[in-house]
Amino acid sequence: MTTESWSPSPGEEEGNYDWSGDYEEPKFCPTSDLPYGYVYIPLLYLAAFGAGLVGNSFVVWLLVGQQGPRRLVDTFVLHLAVADLLFVVTLPFWATAAVLGGRWTFGEGLCKVSSFIIAVTRCASTLLLAGMSVDRYLAVVKLLDAKPLRNQSCMLMTCGVIWTISILAGIPSLVYRKLLPMPVGPGSLCGDDHTDIFQWLSLLVLFLTFILPLAITFFCYSLISRRLWSLPHLSRGRKNSLRIIFAIVGTFTCCWLPFSLLKTFFHIAHLRALPLDCPVVLALRWGLTLTTCLAFVNSSANPVIYLLLDRSFQARVRGSCGRTQPPLASRRSSASSLSGGDSSIFQGWTWGLGRSIRTVPRISFPQNP
To answer: Using CB atoms within 10 A as the burial measure, which of 253, 279, 347, 366 is most buried?
Structure first.
C-alpha cells in the first residue's frame, strides 16, 4: 500500500474537482459512485480478508514451526506473509465503510492506524520483493563472490532495515489522515488533508518505495532469466521455477501498479499541474475504486501461488493434514520449495570449466509478486 492519499471505499475519494487550464482554485465537481458498489465491493474486501487471513496464517505457521535449519530466502517469505497478514486485518473496516457509502464510523484513531498499516505493509512488500530479487541475483549470477553476504544475520538485518524504512514511509498517513465531512449527506469519511506538501511527499515516497524497488526487481530477474535461459538443455523444472518467479512478481505488479498510476494522476492534479474536467475526474475515481479492489486481492495471492505451483508446499500442506508426504525425490523436484535446503528456486545444474565441474546448489524462492 502506498503512503499517498487513497480511498479504499467508494465515496471516500476527495478528488471530485475540476481544474481549469489557468490553475485557478478548483471547483467542486459532482460525481456518483459505482452502481451497486456498496454491494460487491464489500464482498470483495471480505473475500480477500478471509482468504488472506487463512492463507498467510498458514504460511507463517509452516515457517515458524519448521524444524531444522531454515533457508535464507525463507526469511523474506516469512516477512512477506506477515506483511500481508497485517494488511488483511484492516479490510473489515474498509468493507464496513464501503457498505455505508464511504462513511467512516470507527473514529479518527482507527482511520489513521488502518491507513498507516496499509502504507507500511505495501512499502514492506515492495522492498521485500526487491530484497529477494537481489538475493536471487547473488545466488544465481554471483554465487561465489556473494557467499560472505548471504547468511542469516545479513538477511535479518536487511528485513529490519526494510521494516524501518516502511514505518518511516507510513508516517505521512498518521500525520495527514483525518476524518473529513462527506461531500453529500451527514457523517465523515477517512481521507487526507490535501496540502501541496503532502502531494509532493507522496510522489517522492511513491517513487522511492514502489517504482524504484520494482525497477530493481525486474532488472535482477531479467539478469537471472538471461543466465538460466543461456544454459544448454534447460530442464522443465528450471522453466517452471521461472514461471513461479514471474507469477509472484507479476501478480504484485499487476495488482498495485494500476492503483499507483491513478494515484499519481490525482497527486499531480491536486498540485494543479494537470487540468482535469468532470468526466475525467469521474472516470479516474471509478478506476481508483476498482484498482483498489484489485490491489487488495494481492494480500491473498501468494499462498495460492505456492499451493498451485510449489510441489514442496503442497507436500507440507498434505503433511499438515495428516496425509503421507510424497517421496523425497519427488519433493526435491520442486522448483520453488518452501522447505528445501538453502536457496532453492531453481534446481541444481552443472557446467564444466576446463576439466573441472562445478555444481551450483539449488536456488529456491517463494514469493507478493
So the answer is: 366
Q: What is the mean pLDDT of residues 284-304?
A: 87
**Cβ-contact 278, 31 below 8 angstroms:** yes
pTM, rounded to two decimals? 0.77
169-188 pLDDT, tens digit per residue, is 999 888 889 899 887 778 89
Q: Which residues contact 212 (CB under 8 A, 6 or more apart)?
A: none
Q: What are the domain boundaries of the chain?
A: 17-364
Distances (CA, A) of 112 to 26, 42, 104, 182, 309: 26, 20, 11, 17, 37
Cα–Cα distance between 131 and 126 in angstroms, integer? 9
Q: Which cell numbers hold the place of 330?
A: 519427488
Residue ranges of the alpha helices (H) in 196-310? 196-206, 212-229, 236-270, 278-297, 301-309
Distance of alpha carbon 297 from alpha carbon 337, whole angstroms: 24
Architecture, CATH, for domain 17-364: Up-down Bundle (1.20)
DSSP class of 183 = S
**Pick from 362, 313, 355, 347: nearest CA to 77:** 313
CA-to-CA dists, residue 302 to 16, 70, 280, 366, angstroms: 35, 19, 34, 8
Query: How far apart are alpha carbons 222 and 241 in whole angstroms?
Result: 14
What would the pLDDT profile of 311-366 be if each residue is shown by its tens digit?
777 777 777 776 554 444 444 433 334 333 333 333 333 233 333 333 333 333 33
**Separation of alpha carbons 301 and 55, rounded Å:** 9
Helix/strand/coil for 3: coil
